[in-house]
Amino acid sequence: MVNLISQTEYKRTWQQINQNTHYLEATDNTDFINYCPQHFGRGYHRWIKLRGINLLIVDEKFDDDLYVEYKDINDYEDDIIEFGFNLSGSYSQGNGTESFFDWIYIDEIDKVEDFIIFANKRRLKVDIHLDNQSLLQSFIVNHQEKLPKNLINLIEGNTKKRFYETNIITPEMQLPLEQIINCPFQGISKYIYLEGKCLELIALKLEQLAQNEKPMAKSVVLKKDDIERIYAAKVILIKNINNPPSLIELAHQVGLNDYKLKIGFRQVFGTTVFGYLHQHRMEFSRQLLLERQMSIKEIARTVGYINHGCFAAAFRKRFGVNPKHYRLKS
């Protein structure tokens, strides 16, 4: 079932449900939660006001698909300079695990795109909205040549043409995203910590844009059969998470040479073979912690760590907290 609603009505519904603002700290009016209307589903939107940044954390799950229609450009009030990180769930044509950068001057476009929020999938995302371009201007001083020309023109005020780019969430982005969602601090420490993490994510996204501008120093031409073999390699890694084959063994199993597997894997998945394995190990261990069916030592062995301390250190580096603390907090 798909429900159709205008953007104006969608915003009004959220506002009606959240007439009494839910502040996270009694003396702090810059960190608050809006709860999802029950006839939509469940979850929340958390807004945190930082210096020049509005940080949004979305964690929600809708009961039915919701098609939000922009009937009037006035439905959207402000220009958009947004760094977005979709960690799970489906939103319009997105696949739920992507990063994007969007810059729109509202008075320069005829219509903002309609969008769909798909049902029965937890939608977890972190959005960093900038008040204006001054923060970006401070970042790119003496580094203009590294970024896309159309983005530079926007930052320097030479154009108002929309800029939009989407890409993967890199392993380097995962850690600050988890640290934002699980921020352990309160008061002034919280704001300094979150501002630092937002700047880190902006820097990582700009670096991704800069890397995309460079010609690939190492690349191979991948045929359809090569890509299928690379996906087969991924499946083998997942099935053998606690005792993975070496790169040469893995290449032999899927019928590729190790060079093509190594370079092709990065082209297809945006990370190395064992970078992907590590990422999957950490995500799988996080899921096992939430299920609460195994001890932490058993989880460590399940994902391939003989030493419990090494597992705890890897988990803490990835998610910003120890496995025990993560389980207690979840």
Treating each run of at least 4 consecutive H or I residues as one helix, how many helices?
A: 12
Terminal CA distance reads 31 Å
Q: Estimate what percentage of residues fall within beta strands.
A: 15-25%
> Could you spell the SSE succession in H and E letters?
EHEEEEEEEEEHHEHHHHHHHHH
- Radius of gyration, rounded? 22 Å
- Low-pLDDT runs of 5+ residues are none
Q: What is the number of domains?
A: 2
Spatial sequence of strands, sheet with the most strands: 2-3-4-5-10-7-8-11
* Helix percent band: 40-55%
What is the mean predicted local confidence, pLDDT? 86
Query: What's the total count of β strands?
Result: 11
Shape: globular
Q: Which structural class fits the helix and strand makeup?
A: alpha+beta
Report the sheet with the most strands, covering strand number, pairing sense and barrel closure: 8 strands, antiparallel
